[in-house]
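Ticket #4471: structure output looks truncated?

Reporter: J.K.
Steps to reproduce: submitted the chain below (207 residues) through the standard prediction queue, then opened the result file.
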Amino acid sequence: MPENLTSEQRALKQTVDDFVANTLRDLEPRLDDDPDAVRRDVIRASRQAGLFGMTQPAAFGGSEAGIVELTLLRETLAASNLRTAEWVLGPAPGVLAGATGEMKARYLDPLFAGEKRGALGFTEPDNAQRPTWAERDRESLVIHGRKSYVTGGDTADFIAVLVNVQAAGDQPKGTALVVVDRDTPGVLVEETFESLDGSTHVSMRFD
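Returned output as attached by the reporter:
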């Protein structure tokens, strides 16, 4: 924990301590019965406490806390040793930072509100026959291939998939990140595994 905290930082530490004691510890016993409901309750309470948006840029409506405040937050939550602590802080925009229009409304806004979760499909498995590719079908892209070590892919609502768009007439081609809803037909989770820190990862197939 940083030394010589300001009065505002000490107040924040007290807020987080109270949140752990009065919210997270109460919700933790329900986690195995209904994890989705508990996650929603944690996010709702975190937003009300002013904690959820502290990791998010001010340009996106967050409060964009400084490095000391974020260190204080993360150390306090980690010290609680509670599984519910993982949902207290909101996500950064990531690859969706430049999203506008329908893409912003369908993915970025719900992501910041804690209503949707995203993952990044970047790494190819060692035995992949070729890097993941996409073929054009009129106004659509048909994606083929596999990704491994997709962190959080088992619970994500959408995956940003790195693909090579194949040439088709005068249409643009090359490397692209394509946002794919996880419940799209042909998106298959082949294997789920857990790392030492408790985070989950999946191997996925796109067809």
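Triage note (M.O.): checked the attachment and the full token line is present. The first strand starts at residue 118 and ends at 121.
Status: closed, working as intended.
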